[in-house]
Amino acid sequence: MAYPKQFKYSKDHEWIEVKGDVATVGITDYAQHELGDVVFVELPKVGAKVANREDVWSVESVKAVSEIYAPASGEVTEANGTLVQKPEAINTDPHTAGWLIKIRLANPAEVGALMDAAAYEAYIAEKQKEASA
């Protein structure tokens, strides 16, 4: 899969897309593939404060429950309520319809420390190479 070039990526497999001072956050296609079929999503409430690298919500699949980490600090301005009824959107469309939350960034410089699409693709290629060794 080609990863959207306008996103930044964390080593924990979250993506973030910044527009002004608000960022949309989700998990990557690699992450959803590793999870398997997503059956439940727990999202933070609007107004919640999140800190960079803090586990703030979880995604439950048929395989396991996985903690999802905030790729940047801020305040939750919106949660994707559609995922409550249709958590499988994370599997079918992780980079658009499967977004998780939107946050108003507290420190936009944190986003600069994340990987671009090419670096993330190289990172997951290395992880896959290590897993098959």
Protein model, in words:
With 133 residues, the protein is an alpha+beta fold. It is 26% helix and 33% strand. It is built from five helices and nine strands; from the N terminus they run βββαβββββααβαα. The protein has a six-stranded antiparallel β-sheet. A hairpin with a 2-residue loop joins strand 2 and strand 3.
Descriptors for this entry?
5 helices; 133 residues; three-stranded antiparallel β-sheet; 9 strands
Rg (C-alpha, Å): 14 Å
Average pLDDT rating: 94
Shape descriptor reads globular
Order of helices and strands: EEEHEEEEEHHEHH
Instruction: Note poorly predicted spans.
Output: none
Number of β-strand runs: 9
Count of separate DSSP helical elements: 5
Q: Give the amount of beta strand, in percent.
A: 25-35%
Topology overview:
Elements: E1 8-9, E2 14-19, E3 22-27, H1 29-35, E4 38-42, E5 49-50, E6 55-61, E7 65-69, E8 74-79, H2 82-85, H3 89-92, E9 101-105, H4 109-112, H5 117-132
Antiparallel strand pairs: 1-2, 2-3, 3-9, 4-6, 5-8, 6-7, 8-9
Concise description?
This protein has helices at 29-35, 82-85, 89-92, 109-112, 117-132, and strands at 8-9, 14-19, 22-27, 38-42, 49-50, 55-61, 65-69, 74-79, 101-105. It has 133 residues and is of the alpha+beta class. The relative contact order is 0.24.
